[in-house]
Structure formats: structure tokens, C-alpha cells
Amino acid sequence: MLKSNKSVNTLATSDSVLLRTENLGRSVNGKILVEGATFEVHSAEVLAIVGPSGSGKTSLLRLLNRLDEPTSGTVYLEGVDYRQIEPRTLRREIGLVTQRPFLFPGTVAENLRYGPAQRGDTFSEDAISQLLSNVGLGDYSSRNVANLSGGEAQRVSVARTLANSPRLLLLDEPTSALDEASKIEIEALLRNIVSNLRLTCVLVTHDKAQAARLASRVMVLENGHIIRIGSMEEVLHA
Fold first, then answer.
1. Top-confidence residue, 1 or 127
2. Which of 17, 72, 126, 208 has the fewest CB atoms below 10 angstroms from its CB?
3. Is residue 154 part of a domain?
4. Residue 187 sits in a domain of what CATH number?
5. Is there a contact between 94 and 77 (Cβ–Cβ < 8 Å)?
6. Which residue, among 224, 228, 174, 219, has the nearest Cα to 59 in the 3D structure?
7. Mean pLDDT of 184-196
8. Domain count of the chain?
9. Cα separation, 94 vs 144, whole angstroms
10. Mean pLDDT, the chain, as a whole number?
11. How do residues 79-127 score in pLDDT, each as one tens digit?
12. Quick one: CA dihedral 139, 141, 142, 145, positive or negative?
């Protein structure tokens, strides 16, 4: 498993902007889910999105890789309007780890090979072994996913997303469906992987303490609107 003495929230934030949203919004049948969201995500930073239930956190996250289509505004990935990128390609570039891991029937290795195969790449046994080692599942390649615990399945979900070499990692309440022990393990896993690989992440969480442990900046949503964004001290401790 990856080792690091650094915590995620001590990572230096790069000046380069990886992702920028401009007046991003989505309404469905006259109901506003997200409105006027304009913000930036810098390379190698972790941005947490917090807010009460129903505030639009997951709706905003799903707009970032076009799982849902915006009804206003757009997103720029390294300066390119993401409407110019084929959706399947975009979702490899902006990978998503969901609250409840969704794995395909079969072995762990088959799940990891799926993404690379979609772009015509062969994922070698060595690559699979290294990736599984990174998520603490070094000898799980041949295991059937039906026999995994919740924490193990979430680790495989993280590994499968990383197999696509995403430029941005979206985390949608990645520990909320787990028991406390598994939650602590997955949180530590994410901290080490993000720190060692210097990944750029957007984390949705209802847990402000988790946001403080994992993120370098935080955004607060209420009723689909950004009401505050800034450092942990500026926002959560205000």
C-alpha cells in the first residue's frame, strides 16, 4: 500500500487551474437543482463540497463530468469547453467514485481491465497487481466481486477509477455507506493515494470533520447556490 507522511490537507495548491465552471446550473421541470455555480479547481488540490441534505451537492458533482447535462453555463477542463469532449472520454478524464460501489459481475481483475479496454488498451497483470497493491488488495486479482466486503468493494471501485488515469477524481460520499471501521480505512486510503499521486479531487461529503481531514479548500452549498468557498479555516471555522 502507498505510504506517505503527508496528509491531504497539507498539500500545496498549484496555481494552475485544472477545471473551471462558469455559471453552471441545472433545472428539471422548473425545479432548480444547481444555479450560477462559478468556481475553479486547481491542480493537486482537494476541494470539498459540503451542505445540508438536498442542497445540490451530488447534482453539482454529476454536472462536472456530464452524467447530468447542465441547463445553463458550462465546464472547462484545462481551458477546453467540455462539450467539445466526447462524453465517454470525458468520464475517463474526470473519474467518479460513488457512494455505493457499482462493480460488474466477475473478478476484480476483470473490473479493472474494463476501462482501459474501452479505449483499446491492454491492462497487464503487473499493472493490475500494482494498482491493487496501491489500494491494499494486493492478492485480490482473481477474487469474485460478489464475495467482497463493503470496504473491499469500495477499494476496488477506487482502483477501477484510477485504472483510467483520470486527471480529476470525483468522490461522492465515498464512505457514507460503510461501517465505521471501513470508513476509517477508506479515508486513510484516499489520503495516501491522493497525496502520493498528487491527484486533483472534488469530494462531496455531509461530514464537515471529514472535509477538514481530507480537503485543502471547501465550498458550502445551500439550495443549489454556492454561499461560501475558501480555505478550511475561512469557511468551516467561521
1. 127
2. 126
3. no
4. 3.40.50.300
5. yes
6. 224
7. 89
8. 1
9. 27
10. 89
11. 999 999 999 999 999 999 998 888 999 999 999 998 888 888 888 899 9
12. positive
